[in-house]
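Minutes, structural biology subgroup

Action item carried over from last meeting: produce the structure token record for RNA-binding protein (Polaribacter gangjinensis). EB confirmed the sequence was re-checked against the source entry. Recorded below for completeness.
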Amino acid sequence: MAKRENDSFLVKDLMQIFIKENNLTKGMQKIQIEETWAKLMGQGVAGYTTSVKLQNKTLIVQLSSSVLREELTYGKEKIIKMMNEEMGENIISKIILA
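Output recorded by EB:
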């Protein structure tokens, strides 16, 4: 009879290995970026956000309020820093508010 191995792994670690082995990192980042935007910016800003996309280290955010777009323009650098810290790596270098 074969001996059973008692190695235990966390599901989080197994998922990270699976994502890396199957080249799913960019897809997961795109999903995570939307969740991070809503979390960091709060319900008020998330309510006026129509889409959040990540393309080539550029975060493209479409907003339905021109007033909010103008106000967020002043804090682009802070938003980039907060988003990168929350994501755990520097994946955003520029923000376009549309």
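Discussion: The chain has four helices and three strands.
Next step: EB to file the record with the rest of the batch.
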